[in-house]
Amino acid sequence: MTAPTLVPYEEALAKYEPVLGVETHIELGTATKMFCGCPTTFGAPPNTQVCPVCLGLPGSLPVTNKAAIEGIIKIGLALNCTIAEWCRFARKNYFYPDMPKNYQISQYDEPLCVDGYLDVEVDGETFRIGIERVHMEEDTGKSLHVGGATGRIHGADYSLVDYNRAGIPLVEIVTKPITGTGDKAPLVARAYATELRELVRALGVSDVRMEEGSMRCDINVSLAPRGATEWGTRTETKNVNSLRSVERAVRHEIERQAAVLESGGKVVQETRHFHEDTGTTTPGRSKEEAQDYRYFPEPDLVPLAPSREWVEQLRASLPELPAARRRRVQAEWGLTDLELRDVVNAGALDLIEQTVKAGCAPGPARKWWMNELSRRATEQGVELDELPITPAQVARVQALIDEGSLNDKLARQVFEGVLAGEGDPDEVVAARGLKVVSDEGELAAIVDQVIAENADAADKVRAGKVAAAGALVGAVMKATRGQADAARARELILQKLGAS
What we know:
39% helix; Arc Repressor Mutant, subunit A; 9-stranded mixed beta sheet; 14 strands
């Protein structure tokens, strides 16, 4: 059956109300795996970080990683969850080539963290995203499908399996149904994934690199006619691996499901794959229900019973969380809501704060990162924090400006040199000869020469047309390759022409 033409987004939202759900998997950055001592280094040669336990060989027994439990409790506390006093692991049974035991150790009806929330802001409106559960499990291995055009098993010539990832501690965070988002649904989903990533990164329990798979989102979407009392059938788009794609996946599913319903069809409960190149989803498999996994308590692991004392110690150790940090820096730096939003969206908050800690005032720190350096990042097609320059180097450039050794024009040349790998700011200044002309006698001589060479402009200034001094200042700056103090040059010009 040919898929119906998509319904335009605005038309879909005029008739249908979306309900969202987000299931996020986060690999913890522990040194060893969840139930064994194998290392967790990303990018190691295939199948070099495995042992009888994570390969599920007969007779091997798992042992729980305490650091992983500490990590999930921190996440649960930061998400305002209740931490269970007693819970246990379960076996989730299903067959898949990259599942070495043919079951996954997870949690089912007794998760470690429950009933939390995370507030996100979209266009000045706050949405409270309810958290159903945060539970602990082990990651699976990874299949590589070789040949074909899609990288998926269909059409591939053969498949390879790497079990290095099998057994890495994996936290799953499941939201409650997200309602009332209306036409902001894609933006709310993206804002939630963004805020969650920043929160986990602040906790220091994961690098949450979506491009490396250490944070992956499954996006649930359903539509119901406006005014209906029951929600529609949901689909689950699996393993969405960028914030932009979270937004695009929600938008596409709204348009696609609206088209199915408008054509008289029924939305099928299934998993779907998101395609980065087209921004579309395609069917995966029918969605299993809980009974299909045949959950039962894991017999080889003792229950978890974190003491209240330990939980409170972890609560006291939590760092400043992103929302509180934003409120603090906004007050300290005197930013408007729009300015703060621009800084956050540019990924510049950390960089600016580190630059301030290195001794730079907030205003110049924000100016350089949000203007000059942001422009260069865009030109190079990289993220701001991927530029080969450090906050300390930016702070040093501003210090040279503050002490009168550089002006803004020269500072841009210094940034250019640092980004080109020519060394630290002081080395670039020395190598390129970029210091401001600060010798009063030298500057006065240059001013005299410029006045002599630009008699018409000088006569206009003498006649009271002070604006004409701008051309003379420009000539001074040209003569000094931008290294003169423009303000002092103007003062000298006006003095010498009797217009001060």
